[in-house]
Amino acid sequence: MTQIALHNINKHFGAFHVINNVSLTVEDTEFVVFLGQSGCGKTTTLRAIAGLETIDSGEILIGGKPVQDTRVEERDVAFVFQNFALYPHLTVFENMAFPLRAVRTPKAQVETTVRRVADVLQIGGLLNRRPSALSGGDLQRVAIGRALVRNPKAMLMDEPIGSLDAKLREEMRVELKRLHVEQGSTTIYVTHDQIEAMALADRIVVMHAGVLQQVGAPEDVYANPVNLFVAQFVGSPVMNVADVTLAEDAGGARVTVAGATQGFAFPSALLGQVAATGPANRPLTLGVRPEAVRLTLQPAPGAVATEAHIIEPLGSHDIVDFRIGDATLRARTKAGFVPGPGVPVWVTLDHSRAHLFDTATGQTLGIRL
Ligand SMILES: Nc1ncnc2c1ncn2[C@@H]1O[C@H](COP(=O)(O)OP(=O)(O)OP(=O)(O)O)[C@@H](O)[C@H]1O
């Protein structure tokens, strides 16, 4: 059983607080992805777990044992980095065998282990080649294989497929997921690519400026972001956000985008729900994903009139961009639904998938209609 637990860990580089009181438990066999912008502290946190960085305070437990004062070798975790280095003069077999030979594993066991792991990674046919004769994806498999042969308690991966081209990244993503299903090692994976995070993770940990913002299943983080940072970081295309005002109108509620003359009709329950969270007239930000924005080509009850601006045809669907007041918003439509730019469209929102955030703090009001 390899649970990895972080209790209030902190780390500074000089005056810079790179890991800010981070607490997290990664369960045995779980695949957790640290997601955040470059410089938010993901790599430093991973390196601290591996033992490659010291921490200023807090506790790191691997398999229930405090390890923050132990050396890398004693932690028995394997890591794979983006710029992995294979030994160029050794064959794939010898590269993979290296960590086993380093701990004087008997020859027969080295042989069976390397072949078994190579089979899992589908590189059994490449064992006699040297790294220079491998494609990027195969090099990556070898690097992962080298980490796996020791049957480590946990795998730590830092952007392991970040240097591959888009198509290969997609293939390797599936491979990594399959590998995890088969091997079941507790895994922490670092990336700034939210699609990779959504695709791979049992749970995503969104980090910003050294602070954990939200921890949850990908679909939960996507559907219920706790703040504007998470809302805009997870999901592609990004969630629409716009400053809005809220008012009572004809027995319902009206949400009007700043600068717009027409507002969106909402159920009157919204007024009470907002009032229950604080002053109703404070600055609010509406958040709504493009798939929760509905366009029609004819006027519809409670719809806001505007016109299509830019249309991105993406094959299976289109992304249509339009202006309402001061905001540019986007809707996901069926392919070819809006015939061209400049066409009049009427906009309604799926209330159950609209979010309101406190503009000043960026926190969600947690309202569900
Ligand atoms: N040894 C160091 N000394 C000083 N500052 C450092 C050191 N290592 C990292 N930093 C700084 O700490 C911050 C966090 O770095 P970290 O590598 O953890 O971020 P990250 O989220 O993994 O980003 P990236 O995806 O770019 O690696 C960055 O601003 C970085 O410049």
TrEMBL record:
Pfam families: ABC_tran (PF00005), OB_MalK (PF17912). PROSITE patterns: ABC_TRANSPORTER_1 (PS00211), ABC_TRANSPORTER_2 (PS50893). This is ABC transporter ATP-binding protein. It comes from the Bacteria. GO terms for cellular component: ATP-binding cassette (ABC) transporter complex, substrate-binding subunit-containing. Belongs to the ABC transporter superfamily. Keywords: ATP-binding, Nucleotide-binding, Transport. GO terms for biological process: carbohydrate transport. One of its GO terms (molecular function) is ATP binding. Residues 4-234 form the ABC transporter domain.
